[in-house]
C-alpha cells in the first residue's frame, strides 16, 4: 500500500498537490483498515465504505432487518462499521444457532458507550451485569446462583412483598379513576414490576421515592443499548474525531459556534454525561441496598429475600464485593421489560372493550364473582394468554440482546468464526409465518384450548412461545417473575376496572413516566401500532408513546372494601 502511494505521489506535476492528495489517500487507507472484515460468506445488502450498513439502519432497526430478510433469507450478513454481524430472522435459524449450538453463541459483544462510558465509567475493573458480559466460566456460576432464586417454587417464599405491590398498584389505579381524567399508566406498571424485583431482592419494602428513582434510571439507561447507534461504537475514525473534538471544544468554542459545530459536540458530551449519571446513580443505590441488607443480616434478620438467601449459601458467602455488586446490578430493575409490555397492552385493551369483557367473563367463571387471587398465577387461562400474546405481538425487546460467537461454528455448511456479532430480530421472529398464522393480528386465542401459536391447528406446547425473553444459553432467568407480575397485575386491573382511551390533558401528560416520554409529541394511536407508536424506532427496548386511559371502577364499593381489607391483611 505504501509503495502504491509513493508511485502516485511521484506522478504529481507539482509538490503543491502532494499534501491534499496524500491526505485523501491516507484517509482511504484508514477506511480500508477500519471497515468490517468479510469472513462470513453469507449474502447481505451492500454497504458504504467505513460505515457499512450502519446508516441504512438508522430509520428503524427492526424494519430494516425485516426488509433485508425478505431479500437475503433467514440468516444474512451485515457490515456495521468495523464489526461484521450475522442477523437471524426466523425460528428455524434460532433453533440451528442459539439452541442446537448454544455453546458457540453464548458470549456477548462489548460496546464503547455501554461498556465504556456506562458500565466501566467509574472503574475500569467494574463488573458489568451478567446479561451484558462476555462469556466466562464464572458467568455459568453466577447464573446458577441467580436461577436458584427465580424458580416458580422459590418465588412463592417472597409472596408477602409481591402482595403489597399488587395492593399498591390497585390503590394507584383507584386514585387515578377518582380524578375522572385519562392517565398514562406507565408509572403504575414500571414501578410495580421494578418494585417487586427490588423488594424481593433485598427483603424490604422500598419507599415511593426510591422505587421511582430505580425505575426511572432503569428504563432510561436501557435506551443506550441500541444497535447501530451511536456511530462511534462502530466507526473508530468517528470515535477518534469525537475525542479530539471534545478536547478542543472548550478553547475553540468561539470558532465552532459560528460554524454550527458546537451543537454536535454538545450532544456527544450530553450523551456521555447521561451515561455517567446513570452509572453513578445505579452503583450508589445498589451498593447502599447491599450494605443495608448485610447490616440487617448481621443483626439477626432472617427475612427470605433473593440476595440474602444467596449470601447464606456456601457460594454466596464467598462472593467478593465486586461480585455482589454484579449480581445486585443484574437483578435490580430486572422487571423493566414486563413493565414495557404492560404499558403497551393496557392502551390496546382500552381500545378493545370486547376483549376486556371476554377477560372479565373468564375471571368471573373461575372465581364466581369473588376477587381473584393475584398470587394464583395462571389460574385464568385468558389472562395468561393475554400476557403471552402481548410478548409476541409487541415484542418489547425489539432486537434480542446481541450475542458474540464464543468459538468457530458451522451453520448450514457456512463457517462463522469466533468473535462475530450475532443479532436476532425478535420483532420479526415473533411474526414468523412458519410459526404463527395471522401474524399482524393480536389474538389471545392462539394460546388457548390446545393451540400454541396458531389458530388454524392445535399442537403441543413445545419450544418457546416467542423470542421476547431470548433463547438458548443466555435465556432470561426472570421469566417466572415476569409471568407472575403480568398475571397478577392484569387479573386485578380487568376485574376491578373498565378501561377507555381518552386524550391526555396537559397536567396528566406532564406527569407521564419516565419523564422523557412526556416530551415526545403525540400520543399512542388507538391501534397501538408496535412500530409507529414507539418513542424511537432505534431503541433496543420498544418504549410506547404516552397513552391516555380513563379508568372506571366496575363496583366502587367492592373495590374500596377490598383495598381496606387487603391493607389490613398484607401490611
From TrEMBL:
Residues that hold heme according to the record: 476
Protein's pathway: Secondary metabolite biosynthesis
Transmembrane segments: 17-36
Any one Gene Ontology molecular-function term assigned to this protein's record: monooxygenase activity
Keywords: Heme, Iron, Membrane, Metal-binding, Monooxygenase, Oxidoreductase, Transmembrane, Transmembrane helix
Cofactor: heme
InterPro entries: Cyt_P450, Cyt_P450_E_grp-I, Cyt_P450_sf, Cytochrome_P450_fung
Pfam families given in the database record: p450
Similarity comment: Belongs to the cytochrome P450 family.
Designated name of the protein: Cytochrome P450 phenylacetate
Classification lineage: Eukaryota, Fungi, Dikarya, Basidiomycota, Agaricomycotina
